[in-house]
Amino acid sequence: MPNLSFYYRYSLVFVAALALAACSTPQTVIDPTPEPGLSQSAPVFTLDNQAELSASPADLSPDFRLNARVLASDFFLASEDAIFKELSTALPRDLTLTDGFYELYPTGQMPTQMVLSIPAENITGDLTRIDALIWQGDQWRFTPSFAADSRLNVMIPAQAQYIVLGQLETQFGVINASTASAALPDSINGIINALYLNTLETQPSGQLAGTLLENEPIGGIQLLLPTITATADVLDLMLLGPDLQQAHFAAVIDQTVAQGYAGAVLAYDQQNKASTEAYSAFIEAIAFQLRANNRLVVLKIPAPSVSDGRFSLPGHDLQTLQNSVDFVEIDITRDILNGTAHDTLRWLTSQLDRRKLRLHINVAAIVDQAGTLSTTSLSDAWTQAGSVSANKALTPGSTLNLQIGGTNTIIAKDEANGALLIQPIPDKKIYYPLAAFLSGQFSLANQFNLAGVTLQHFDVGQANPTLWPVVQAYQSQSIDTLTMLDPTISWQVIDEAGTRTLTTLTLGETFQWQPETVGNYQITANLDGALPIQLIDTTLSVVDGAAETDPIAVGAVTPTAANETIAAIPTSTPATAIAQLPTATTGVVPTSTPLATTNAALPTATPIVAQGVPTDSVAPTAIPATAVQAAATAVPTATSVPQVETFAFGGQVPDGNTISEDFLRAAGMGWIKIQANEESAHDHGPDIAKAHALGFKILLSTVGNRSRPHEPAYQDEFAVYVANLAAQGADAIEIWNEPNLDREWPNGQIDPAIYAQMLQKSYIAIKAANPNTMVISGSPAPTGFFGGCQPGGCDDGPYLDGLHAAGAGAYMDCIGIHYNEGIISPNQATGDPRGAHYTRYFPGMVERYSQAFGGTEPLCFTEIGYLSGEEWGSLPQAFQWKGPFNNTVAEQTQFLLEAVQLGKQDERIKMMIIFNLNFTVWGDDPQAGYALIRPNGSCPSCEGLRQIVSGS
Q1: Is the pLDDT of residue 593 over 60?
Q2: Which of 553 and 676 is assigned the larger pLDDT?
Q3: Could you tell me how far CA 591 lies from the centroid of its own chain?
Q4: Which pLDDT does position 31 carry in this prediction?
Q5: Whether pLDDT at 573 is above 60
Q6: Within 10 Å of residue 419's Cβ, how many Cβ atoms?
Q7: At residue 646, what are phi and psi to the nearest 5 degrees?
Q8: Contact 724, 700 (CB under 8 A)
Q9: 359, 614, 734, 753: most buried, per Cβ within 10 A?
């Protein structure tokens, strides 16, 4: 019987719509398809927008007729019709309509299913991210759709009368994890949302066997869910036995509800392909009881099979299953390795509501043994790489050749999926999860707008420091901008005097070394850029006389278990591995350098913190310490990253009471910089307010307790401190000062990976307090003194490379740079009398710092200045690079103008802060010699700087 009320309402609305279209919005409504529309004799018909409705003739009754119309989305959303207002109000708030609103008006018996096929050109956006929704009486529900032949085909069930197409807003990265350990750090709170605990296995009686972790917060996380498993045989027994089902339901409720867990993860094995209907009813029943007790229900499903390009998942009624549970999760590791994951996810999102679908990501090593997949620990993956052989003894001048891996072992990056491939035998492959491998899977989840991811074997893989930048980029929706770094092997030879020789090679390269003298030498090999672990540590002898040539095993690849100890996140490189960082220069490095000698001999002699800063320590209280960890989920999306001006220009002043605003304006400066010390009781809120009141933006360069920056607990305290500065309105914050020197960072703890932890925590806390505050990485001291890295210091080039390898790029808005040692024009790239090291030259600094991060991060000179001691007639010896006083005042003026002109023209440079505007300190640290305002009160550079910056 015709739905007369529906047809009558349609007629009135249609007439009103035509009237509205005629007087205000022409062509807003597309005419309905003329009669007879869809019928048994005409099983396909075309709407005016070229969309087609079709059904199987066998599924159409003789009396069935169906007509349809499509309204433009803007008309539907603006309509005052009561039904339309109800429908539009009920749409998901995060849904953007990408095509019209389809309305069906049938007579007779509806077919069980129809297909609405829409040309792709009528749909706005990527078809892989488009969802179709149908109205089911009280809410909009997902209905399957798939793209083929440049059309989107929507499955329409019998009860549908209204259909919309749209794209959900990008999901904020939700990350869960599976673990069998309770020894996880509190720092995962705010990063991991829920933990899936070790499994309980279903017995033939329906009862559960196994021991769960206690229901106590792990790593600060409250949401704990046990995982319930059952083999295919046991599942078949339960599906055939109602009594066994009831026993099982009671056992699951007892282990979840009675024990106070947040829910359950159902991971039943469907290999026997038991009755689809029975399995769906079983899942519906158990899920109903759990959800009735306000418990989460997560259902794991197997990966679909594919034959002749057609996907299938026998035994699973996906529509029924997804409506029964809160989330559906799937492991498509084999598809990831085979390169077919994109097609698999495209099919899955055509069948399942992406708002419920989560992707499993293995963060342990994956073993493919003759086609069977399993997992192993990260360290165990390397034990299978074989051993290294060398001659029994060496003589001076002979050559040692070493290479990781046995004769037949393949160790290389798998370019197809980004993993590190270790293949000890032909039918065994081990995939080691590099950052590129992990980020590719996160990118898939992001591309298909899934509801999140679950990190499998998290208690093993969370120690991998390459994981955390990827996690953070996924959470902040910037995963596609993450820069990857290929792994390298750092070889080190240490002689009996402790002198170290470093060589960094790519995978597969052979290490060659020629000893010069007899003695015992320690040889180590370390993997960098992935999980920093020691692969080889052995001692060889160099003797006089003929060398024995029979090969012996130098050392097997046996990484220590300490590399997977669960400690803090991200896991830092051990202090003993400082010298293993990739270096720009290979050579002999002193094993120790006294502090006084280091400071006196450094060619950079960068100015130290401004004088007169109080040293009393008062901890800030405005932001609670717990906010630092909780802020992890509040990291802004990529669109909220503060936009640095095309060229931000300013000067450093001693403190907020000495802001010489007239000179700042005379030099065209819009920014001021002040040093801020966490140990000081000084409140910078008034300084920030004063700068803003005068029309200036303010950069705070922050430091703190120089004996503790490597300690995780202190890093949390420091993050609270800088978050307070952001909350007070700081426009930019630089995290620490020259952390590559032992005058700023503890000797023996100088490590870019440790600094990256501080930067990460500070960045997260700052962005939670004020998303508009720019975060600048702590500028290293520019130096080549150390010949690489050692306990007393690290050259800035290798330090930057280490920052990149540790994923620091995800936690900064700009790379900090100091350049204070210039004695020639910044236009020159050669000619400095001290040598050819890049730190002598302005162009060399720009290129080296930009290349360290692949050109993806902007550059911020938080200190740039030229030292002139002309008025004093000389300089302290440590700062005298060209007698008698480095630069004349005229040269200082010329070089500053040229540098600022270059900076303004270089798109890579976003900020230049002149060191300094008006310092008056003179002595062993001649800060006044850098000042723009000279001792006679004049500012020779000001007018020229203003003209360059303003362009007039």
Answers
A1: no
A2: 676
A3: 36
A4: 46
A5: no
A6: 24
A7: -50, -40
A8: no
A9: 734
Cβ-count burial 888-920 (b if 16+ within 10 Å, e if not):
ebebbbbbbbbbbbbbbeeeebbbbbbbbbbbe
Q: For residue 485, name the pLDDT band (cuts at 50, 70, 90).
A: low
User: Which residues are paired to 817 by β-bridges?
Assistant: 861
Enumerate the H helices of 213-332 as residue ranges: 232-240, 242-256, 276-292, 318-324
DSSP letter at 189? B
Residue 229 bridge partners (DSSP): 201, 267
* Paired tokens of 936: 């006679």
Task: Give burial (CB, 10 Å; 0-12/13-18/19+) of 22.
Answer: exposed
Q: Are 29 and 44 in contact (CB under 8 A)?
A: no
Residues 217 and 808: their CA atoms lie apart, in Å, by: 29
Q: What is the three-state SS of 414-477?
A: CCCCCCEEEEEECCEEEEECCHHHHHHHHHHHHHCCCCEEEEECHHHHCCCCCHHHHHHHHHCC
| 3-state helix, strand and coil shares in percent for the chain, rounded to the nearest 5 | 30, 25, 45
Considering the chain, what percentage of its residues have pLDDT values greater than 70? Answer: 82
In angstroms, the Cα distances linking 270 to 274, 279, 316, 360, 393 are: 7, 9, 9, 18, 59
Nearest to 936 by CA among 884, 887, 868, 877: 868
- 264, 295 Cβ separation under 8 angstroms: yes
End-to-end CA distance of the chain: 81
Better-scored residue on pLDDT, 19 or 88: 88
Q: Which residues pair with 651 in a beta bridge?
A: 672, 914
Q: Under the phi-then-psi rule, with left for phi > 0, alpha for psi from -120 to 50, and beta for the rest, what region is 490? A: beta
Neighbours of 795 (CB within 10 A): 27
* SS (HEC) of 87-124: HHHHCCCCEEEEEEEEEEEEECCCCCEEEEEEEHHHCC
Number of alpha carbons in the 13 Å side-chain half-sphere of residue 248:
29
Cα-to-chain-centroid distance, residue 709: 23
> Could you give the angle at the alpha carbon of 164 between the alpha carbons of 159 and 166, nearest 5°?
140
Cα separation, 629 vs 890, whole angstroms: 51
Averaged pLDDT, 823-837: 90
Q: How confident is the model at residue 357 (pLDDT cuts 50, 70, 90)?
A: very high
- At residue 116, what are phi and psi to the nearest 5 degrees? -105, 115
The helix (H) or strand (E) run that includes residue 766 is helix 752-769
